[in-house]
Write a structure and sequence with these properties.
By secondary structure, the chain is of the alpha/beta class. It folds into two domains: 183 residues, 3-Layer(aba) Sandwich (Rossmann fold); 104 residues, DNA polymerase, domain 1, CATH 1.10.150. It contains 14 helices and eight strands. β1, α2 and β2 form a beta-alpha-beta unit. α9 packs across α10. It is globular. 44% of the residues are buried.
Length: 300
């Protein structure tokens, strides 16, 4: 079951009030959207955006829905990218917008049920696309056709992988014999590339490589940059933006953007330091361990 990360903190910083309307840029399985809808009635709405067409269709067919019919009447759910949130809001005449949430983590469904290779603990095809219909580039194509230098650059830039060179070299070496087809094929190669002393690390040796490939496949950093700009553009004065990130690349981008907005006297930063999950939440939901929440308010 999907548990929305830092739900209480999201509600605290979004501060939804009666009849206000919000955008949830990363609907997933609807946990945060439901929490907002429970606070902004009787006429407040949520425009929720879900990038994955399959996850979107599953919710539409009620397979994943945990939102009751009374709340559903105030939900506008659209399939698309939050990089296009301004256009999606305009197409649906959704305004005024009093707050925007971006939860940049993967949903449990992607890890457990999508069968697209997001998890290094399952033997699945190397896909890693959130929207297969919109994106032709797969992790399989990257791993099997990109040059050694290109692979190393991706692992360094998007995974901050200290052993990027060794992993890239080992991938190119092994794919000469046969394609790297599945997640476990790739995990085995990563394992062989790692020095023995690192294999007992608390972090699984494949973590950063899988992160890097997923980010590259889905152009996540570029999408985040576009989404942040458009979010602030559509926010009402006093409207709030809350972003939950799960790795340093995302968090640095959000921090930089908020800081620039404050320098231009457009934003007031509400979180001087990122908010992290409580020990109690981490115990109940280990995914929350790496979550960092930052919030800001539009002041003009």
């Amino acid at each position: 079951m999907h548990i929305p990360v830092m739900k209480n903190e999201v509600i605290e910083y979004l501060s939804p009030r009666v009849n206000e309307s919000f955008i949830d840029c990363t609907f997933g399985e609807g946990g945060h959207t439901k929490a907002i809808l429970e606070k902004n009635g009787p006429n407040g709405k949520v425009l929720a955006i879900e990038a994955d067409p399959e996850l979107y269709k599953k919710f539409q067919s009620q397979e994943l829905s945990t939102i009751n019919n009374q709340l559903l009447e105030r939900l506008v759910l659209k399939n698309g990218s939050y990089a296009d949130l301004r256009e999606i809001a305009e197409e649906n005449n959704f305004k005024p917008i009093n707050g925007i949430l971006m939860d940049l983590g993967m949903s449990s469904w992607h890890l457990e049920q999508s069968h697209r290779g997001f998890s290094f603990q399952k033997d699945e095809p190397l896909d890693m696309r959130y929207s297969p219909e919109a994106n032709p580039l797969t992790a399989y194509e990257i791993v099997n056709s990109f040059s050694e230098d290109e692979l190393e650059a991706i692992l360094k830039e998007y995974g901050e992988e200290r052993f990027a060179r060794q992993i890239a070299k080992k991938i190119v070496e092994k794919r000469k014999n046969k394609p790297v087809r599945t997640t476990l094929d790739l995990v085995e190669i990563i394992w062989m590339a790692m020095p023995n002393w690192y294999k007992s690390s608390k972090i699984h040796p494949a973590t950063k490589t899988f992160q890097a490939l997923r980010i590259k496949v889905n152009e996540e950093i570029e999408g985040l940059k576009q989404g942040l700009v458009k979010a602030v553009d559509v926010l009402e004065k006093e409207g709030r933006i809350v972003v939950i990130s799960f790795h340093s690349l995302e968090d640095r981008e959000v921090k930089r953007f908020f800081k620039r907005g404050a320098q231009l006297n457009i934003l007031e930063i509400l979180t001087k330091k990122p908010i992290t999950a409580s020990e109690e939440e981490i115990a109940n939901n280990p995914r929350a361990r790496s979550a960092k929440l930052r919030a800001a308010k539009r002041i003009v």
